[in-house]
């Protein structure tokens, strides 16, 4: 359970570290849409600590010992002699660079932060099933896993940014704040379509490789397939909420703004919907962390 908890926390932090600053780069937004320097630094430092804990947990699992009994030689061998170790080193360098740039504000540096965060998030592909394949099939699987991670991070990071925006007290917001909020929601609606498409395509590729048509029949008895089915069900609900936000709640906010009314009701509805969507996203990440510790049917 400790390894699953570490994986969950690491996935969550790296996805927010990538997706939140990315959200601040695309679409029209206000200053509250991106993380502050201190928030970015905090996310980076916690991600680095979780990466160290994750490396210790992986080494313990590979060595067949408790995490408290891992020795230096085993850690060194894992870090410097395995693909997972190389990916871990890349992640730590990327995180160190983001920490160094955390308080630097400029468009170019903003893009650089997102790029390094993308590298840190993509490195997780080497800690899961995505790096287990061989030849062309293995390369397709790895690329699909990386794109899946980045698309998920973009979505989850945007949920954090939007959640913080709509959580503000409506009575303290100006009309300019509401207009900026609408632009941000509208911008995410367009980008979110791309993220969802990438998630569906890459998720289908990974499912075909790791489960296959034969594995679907194991729904009643294979833990991996059962968890995957729950993940897909939660993802479907998230899609429904995202569609409601785009085609119902965001237009309702726009109508109130055009009418000159304070969109308190629309804001409450958006706040509730985004909170539920974020909760579902956290549940999906917990399942993903659990799936990473199980053997998929195709590997049996």
Attribute tags:
300 residues; mainly alpha; 10 helices
Describe this structure in words.
This protein is mainly alpha-helical. The chain has one domain (2-299). The protein is built from ten helices and no strands. It has helices spanning 2-25, 37-63, 72-81, 83-101, 107-122, 135-166, 175-210, 212-216, 223-259, 264-291. Helix 6 packs antiparallel against helix 7. The mean pLDDT is 88.
Task: Compose a concise summary of this entry.
By secondary structure, the chain is mainly α. The chain is built from 10 helices and no strands.
User: Main β-sheet, in a few words?
Assistant: none
Q: Spell the H/E element sequence.
A: HHHHHHHHHH
Beta strand %: under 5%
**Radius of gyration over all CA atoms, rounded:** 20 Å
Helix content: over 70%
Overall shape: globular
Tally of structural domains: 1
| Number of separate strands | 0
Number of helices: 10
The helix-and-strand class reads mainly alpha
Which SSEs are present, and which pair or pack?
Layout: H1 2-25, H2 37-63, H3 72-81, H4 83-101, H5 107-122, H6 135-166, H7 175-210, H8 212-216, H9 223-259, H10 264-291
Helix pairs in contact: 1-2, 1-5, 1-6, 1-10, 2-3, 2-4, 3-4, 4-5, 6-7, 6-10, 7-9, 9-10
């Amino acid at each position: 359970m400790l390894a699953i908890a570490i994986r969950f926390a690491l996935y969550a932090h790296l996805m927010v570290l990538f997706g939140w600053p990315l959200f601040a780069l695309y679409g029209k937004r206000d200053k509250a849409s991106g993380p502050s320097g201190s928030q970015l630094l905090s996310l980076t430092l916690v991600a680095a600590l979780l990466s160290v804990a994750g490396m210790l947990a992986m080494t313990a699992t590979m060595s067949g010992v408790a995490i408290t009994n891992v020795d230096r030689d085993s850690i060194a061998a894992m870090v410097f002699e395995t693909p997972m170790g190389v990916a871990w080193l890349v992640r730590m360098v990327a995180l160190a660079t983001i920490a160094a740039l955390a308080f630097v504000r400029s468009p170019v540096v903003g893009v650089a932060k997102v790029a390094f965060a993308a590298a840190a998030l993509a490195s997780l592909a080497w800690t899961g099933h995505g790096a287990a394949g061989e030849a062309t099939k293995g390369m397709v699987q790895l690329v699909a896993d990386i794109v899946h991670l980045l698309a998920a991070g973009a979505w989850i990071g945007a949920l954090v940014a939007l959640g913080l925006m709509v959580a503000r007290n409506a009575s303290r917001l100006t009309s300019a704040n509401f207009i900026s909020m609408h632009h941000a929601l509208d911008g995410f609606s367009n980008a979110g379509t791309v993220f969802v498409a990438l998630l569906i395509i890459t998720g289908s590729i990974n499912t075909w490789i790791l489960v296959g048509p034969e594995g679907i029949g194991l729904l009643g008895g294979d833990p991996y397939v059962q968890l995957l089915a729950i993940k897909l069900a939660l993802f479907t609900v998230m899609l429904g909420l995202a569609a409601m936000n785009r085609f119902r709640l965001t237009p309702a906010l726009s109508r109130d703004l055009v009418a000159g009314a304070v969109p308190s009701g629309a804001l409450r509805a958006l706040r509730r919907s985004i909170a539920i969507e974020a909760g579902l996203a956290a549940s999906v990440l917990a399942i993903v962390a659990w799936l990473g510790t199980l053997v998929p049917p195709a590997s049996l």
